[in-house]
């Protein structure tokens, strides 16, 4: 994915990002892959390739830990199974 001014990042986001209260997860890297189930809290996914278990049900939302989405391009590949 290209994140902010042509900087390429992976699902873990930009390493050593400074905290930013405008991001959904202020203490996690900018540009990182994040998720949410239904109306629950947002959680970090990053480049974790192992199973990720969530207790509960609801629609899965995936996104990017960024406060300005209009300057982002690209995609992450995510495999979901249950």
Structure write-up:
The chain is mainly β. It has one domain. Helix content is 0%, strand content 20%. The chain contains no helices and five strands. It has strands at residues 2-3, 7-8, 33-37, 43-44, 60-64. Strands 4-3-5 form a three-stranded antiparallel sheet, with no helix packed on it. A two-stranded antiparallel sheet has the order 1-2. A hairpin with a 3-residue loop joins strand 1 (2-3) and strand 2 (7-8). The chain starts with a strand and ends in an 18-residue tail after the last strand. The mean pLDDT is 86.
How many domains? The number is 1
* N-end to C-end Cα span: 26 Å
Which class of secondary structure composition applies to the elements? mainly beta
Task: For the largest sheet, list the strands in their spatial order.
Answer: 4-3-5
Poorly predicted spans: none
Shape: globular
* Major sheet attributes: 3 strands, antiparallel
Rg calc:
13 Å
Give the count of helical stretches.
Answer: 0
What is the share of helical residues? under 10%
Count of DSSP strands: 5
Average of pLDDT: 86
Sheet-strand content, in percent, reads 15-25%
State the order of secondary-structure elements, H for helix, E for strand.
Answer: EEEEE
Which tags fit this structure?
mainly beta, 3-stranded antiparallel beta sheet, 82 residues
Q: In short, what is this structure?
A:
The protein is mainly beta and 82 residues long. 0% of the residues lie in helices and 20% in strands. It is globular, with a radius of gyration of 13 Å.
């Amino acid at each position: 994915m290209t994140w902010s001014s042509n900087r390429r990042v992976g699902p873990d986001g930009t390493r050593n990002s400074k905290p930013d209260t405008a991001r959904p997860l202020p203490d996690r890297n900018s540009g990182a892959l994040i998720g949410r189930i239904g109306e629950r809290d947002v959680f970090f996914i990053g480049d974790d390739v192992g199973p990720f278990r969530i207790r509960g049900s609801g629609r899965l939302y995936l996104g990017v830990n960024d406060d300005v989405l209009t300057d982002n391009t690209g995609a992450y590949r995510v495999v979901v199974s249950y």
